[in-house]
Amino acid sequence: MSELVLDPARTGLLIVDLQNDFLHPDGAYSRGGQKNAEIAALPERVLPLANALREKGGWVVSTHFTLVPGKGGEPFISPHLKELRPFLGKGDFAPGAWGHALVDELQPADISVEKVAYSAFYMTRLEWVLKKAGIDTLIFCGIVTNGGVASTVRDAHVRDFKTAVLSDGCAAFSKETHERSIGDLGTVSRVMTCAEALGKITGA
């Protein structure tokens, strides 16, 4: 994989699903007993990159996992997700709700996109807004490495975006799963640390 050359004005830090309902102590996952220290540490770890990219004229792009409310506000939940996370229910990840929002540490995002599946490109406006913004390079962080991150990276790859995945800016619910996924993503994307990406941004 050739070295990534950044034009900050055409680069987006794509923050995958770092939402209150996933990370905050009062969020849906915490209430359901699904806490993870590596995931909780991500906002502080990637904040310097977001700030540096903003200062250089780049873009902060946030994707938001969404449970679309149906009648009476009861969300549509895929059977596989309901089996994995039976605690999810009414009001969780609802559009416009506090739990659906990007965590405070990383706000504001320049572009926000709701998503209903692993990939942020699936049935969303993401590709359209990235093209309108002139973004051709995406630096990926967020959760989970083997789910939303991996699916969105692969979809970006087939759409000819230049991509980089932050090995220490993403996390999964197990270290082994994260490391295996990072290794797999190295076949379609550049992989770098947050410090390496920060150096590229500040030096651009």
Automatic annotation (TrEMBL):
Residues 12-193 form the Isochorismatase-like domain. One of its GO terms (molecular function) is hydrolase activity. It comes from the Bacteria. Keywords: Hydrolase. This is Cysteine hydrolase. InterPro entries: Isochorismatase-like_dom, Isochorismatase-like_hydrls, Isochorismatase-like_sf. It comes from Roseibium aggregatum.
